[in-house]
Amino acid sequence: MPLVIAIDGPAASGKGTLAKRLAHHYGLPHLDTGLLYRAVALLMLDAGADLDDGGEAARTAARLVADQLADPRLRERAMGEAASRVSSVPEVRTALLSWQRRFAGGEAGAVLDGRDIGTVICPDARVKLFITASPEERARRRHRELAGRGEETTLAAILADIRARDARDSSRSAAPLKAAEDAVRLDTTELDAEEAFAAARDVVDRAREH
Ligand code: CDP
Ligand code: CDP
């Protein structure tokens, strides 16, 4: 069976960084599924559509093509918030489901990171990780990251964003952010990216032995 690693967790927990490193280490293709929701939001904003128009969001999701995942604007702070709004529409999630399943179902195996990978997209993944860190630590990480890209914001504004997004992502009825029952939880509040990678590698290596 190809190796599929499902990684979920809240904003700025370090799941994307970890997913990239695991993918490189095990030679697996990687999909950052947050980009799909960010791309739907960006296409809607570019078209002047209302982000709360669920029908338009679903039509936009159904038209999404891979080329649209490369836009550097997808990484901007405002897009995380906008993505969170469109991602609560069940029809948007359905439109993006088969794309993600196809990616995960390839012969080569895969690493996917997001909010519902272990629960909805890849319930049979060999390895499931649920990455957390305190909201304050996540806000510091995101603040550092955005400052590095020249996007000026305050730590307080980012912490408020993170709390709002945690609340919305965890409370929505369509595929809420939650750990799968068989996920291994990794709290990275006190870990740097290297230590988190080492801990995750141990989990994957143990799973591969069985
Ligand atoms: O990197 P960060 O965690 O800040 O954001 P992201 O992973 O790019 O996700 C942006 C938003 O998309 C999240 O707040 C979720 O609302 C949504 N999302 C989702 O609903 N399901 C996924 N599998 C991935 C992202
Ligand atoms: O994908 P997600 O939003 O969960 O987080 P990320 O974009 O992978 O990570 C946010 C920032 O935290 C990056 O700049 C990482 O270098 C840093 N970081 C980390 O990924 N893991 C740690 N254990 C500590 C910091």
Care to describe what's here?
This protein has 210 residues and is an alpha/beta fold. It has one domain: Rossmann fold. 54% of the residues lie in helices and 11% in strands. It is built from nine helices and five strands. The protein has helices at 15-26, 34-46, 54-63, 77-86, 90-104, 117-121, 135-148, 155-171, 193-209, and strands at 4-8, 30-32, 110-114, 127-132, 184-187. A five-stranded parallel β-sheet has the order 2-3-1-4-5, with helices on both faces. Helix 2 (34-46) crosses helix 3 (54-63) and helix 2 (34-46) packs across helix 4 (77-86). The radius of gyration is 16 Å and the shape is globular.
Dominant shape:
globular
Strand numbers in spatial order across the main sheet: 2-3-1-4-5
What can be said about the biggest beta sheet? Answer: 5 strands, parallel
Bound molecules: cytidine-5'-diphosphate
Content-based structural category = alpha/beta
- How many structural domains are formed by the residues? 1
**Could you please say which CATH topology applies here?**
Rossmann fold
β-sheet strand percentage: 5-15%
Residue stretches low in confidence (pLDDT < 50, at least 5 long) are: none
Top-tier CATH class:
Alpha Beta
Topology as a string of helices (H) and strands (E): EHEHHHHEHEHHEH
Count of alpha and pi helical runs: 9
EC number: 2.7.4.25
Protein name: Cytidylate kinase
Family: Belongs to the cytidylate kinase family. Type 1 subfamily.
Keywords: ATP-binding, Cytoplasm, Kinase, Nucleotide-binding, Transferase
